[in-house]
Amino acid sequence: MLYFYLFTLPASELKALSGVHPRSTENTQLRSQDLGIQRRHDRKRSEEISTFIQFGYPWSSLSSKQRESEKFSDLRKPGWLPTAIIVNILEEKDIRRGRHVDSNDLVTVNDLDNRSATIRLPNSFNGPEWKPAGLHPLEVIDGQHRLWAFDEEGVEGDFELPVVAFYGLDISWQAYLFWTINIKPKRINASLAFDVYPLLRTEDWLEKFEGPAIYRETRAQELVESLWAYPESPWYQRINMLGESGLGQW
Description:
By secondary structure, this protein is an alpha/beta fold. It folds into two domains: 4-182, no CATH class; 187-250, no CATH class. The protein has helices at residues 11-17, 43-55, 64-68, 144-148, 171-182, 190-195, 213-229, and strands spanning 4-10, 18-19, 85-89, 108-111, 117-120, 138-142, 160-167. The protein starts with a strand and ends in a 21-residue tail after the last helix. Residues 28-36 have low confidence and may be disordered.
């Protein structure tokens, strides 16, 4: 049976322990021989996440000019990252592009029972500035842009990140995980997202009209809901509020 482990680590330590293997066409090798599964790191994406961690949404979506003014200071919210970083703990026998993890740099797992285990960091590990002698002992399956967001200025490295770790997971299963996480999921219908806005009506920052589009979207949702809910409206109960298919509604 395949197990995975759940724990937390400070972002700075997790980043020091983790490596990323992006796919590449530089060596013109057959695609089946390229063992990387990650896309190339997008610095701009990590910068966006870094801003979100510091100031939350919707402040992180504002333009530089809007951020510099004090007009929208009430848009600063918690920048929570509850979604786990998914990694694989490499075994000493694992080879990646001709390299392996040094025996002194291995992360070890000791299963205590079916519900708990002890995970030990490398004997040589001494903190965020640590460098491995060979490969990093952890390889990122999902979450590289969130993890590298902590490279940006202003983000505290002691931010505790949830981690899901597999041990000695085969590359084919890593590719399967990457595919199911990043390709298979379907984004929710925008109508459902708009329908959630009433749950935010106690937020004072939604009472403004100028600024981010979320203000106008909130007011638009209220107008549509009124047309849908008012018995005298020609659109009474005829608007598909959740964007569900097959209902014969607009």
